[in-house]
Amino acid sequence: MDTLELLAHPVRLRVVHALRGGRLLTTSELRERIPDVSKATLYRHVELLVGGGVLEVAEERRVRGAVERRYRLRQDRAMIDPAAPLSREDHRRGFAAATAALIAAFGAYLDRDGSDPAADLVGYRQHAVWLSEEELLELIAGMRAAIAPRLANGPAPGRAQYLLSPILFPIEPPADPGAA
């Protein structure tokens, strides 16, 4: 199974999100973070991610006669190669998986005891902006500059993990400069 196929599934994508930031988690701990997915389904998807090299076993220990494994995300394998040629159908599948994972993660957040969207500064605004190619590249560079340094953050007291999903695509073709 190639990386696109591995990551283009909402449950597997949620497992990847849960393990970001250097976390080491058991399947039981993953289940606590993804409570709406059955235990059997979660185990199956973790095994697929391990088999595909996206996850690796970081630790093993015996617990009441069974082997408990902690999994680690392999950052270098948890992304689609930006140079990989993707078809429109590949993009459609990837986007569908990402939005399904986002909807499921948001539903799980709302279902959690004590969730408070206002206090947690939850946001899901959409903006339609007019940009030239130069302005678009500047916007993308600015977003990368703001986000990239925080990707290395790990769990720490006072920190909560947030799911940040920048989505950017043209909603109409560029205006014809001669049609004014």
TrEMBL record:
SMART domains per the UniProt record, alphabetical: HTH_ARSR
Q: Which residues form the HTH arsR-type domain?
A: 2-85
Pfam (any one): HTH_20
Looking up SUPFAM superfamilies in the UniProt record yields: Winged helix' DNA-binding domain (SSF46785)
InterPro entries on file: HTH_ArsR_DNA-bd_dom, WH-like_DNA-bd_sf, WH_DNA-bd_sf
The domain of life for this entry's organism is: Bacteria
What is the name of the protein in this document? Helix-turn-helix domain-containing protein
